[in-house]
Amino acid sequence: DFERGRQDQTHHPFMINFSTGDVRITTRVDEDDLSQALFSSIHEMGHGLYEQGIRRDLEGTPLACGTSSGVHESQSRLWENIVGRSRGFWKFFYPQVQSYFPSQLGNVSLDAFYQAINKVQRSVIRMDADEVTYNLHVMIRFDLELMMLEGRLQVRDLPEAWNERYREDLGVVPQNDSDGVLQDVHWYTGQIGGMFQCYTLGNLMSAQFFEAAVTEQPEIIPKIEQGNFSTLHNWLKDNIYQHGCKYTAAELIKSVTGTALRIDPFIRYIRQKYGQLYML
Quick one: which of 107, 112, 189, 200 has the most CB atoms within 10 Å? Predict the structure, then answer.
């Protein structure tokens, strides 16, 4: 809702809110890669919708914020990946994108574009990782962070340990520290001791929330194909956004989906989507 927010350009995308009536997002732009601006915009929009959807009567209280970092990431990842990288989403929007970039995409089919934006490949940059390998990036950071907190790894040895884990786990090695240990701002802005795993928790929650939403409102899928997101958005507002942080993450998940956090919905989502893409 641009009546209650705005969008600007930056190097590292983020969302910042001053109230439910003033929520701002920023977008990273790469002139050689359309996906950077597209998906960073959708991701931060997910955060912004959450903040704008909090009940007005909670404004000015400690409850006027997201439940947790994990739940917040579930909303950004849900819109970015489950919706924004879905074939149904692009069935509606791809002709519009082609009209803006006729020389680049005019002869590229919807299926080819859909496969390209969901390509699974090894990478050194977490923010560029696909849905299948993304959580491996988080696992590496979690393990190294825990080693530092427990005194088993010194900060001066972190770059070497980082590169070795990427070599072992993903089969790639950063060419420099900017693309390696320095690529994220979290540790160097004091966010140490549990920040990165909120992205994986968000991935798991996003699949569980979306599965619950579609179970209750099956028309969500065909409406996405029509470019209509109101049913999904209203479901998220009613079940998640409006409550702010009135409930803990565990309480919210159980209340909304009927069960505690589970990995099954995420595994089903990944297997179904990428099984079809790669004919597995």
Answer: 200
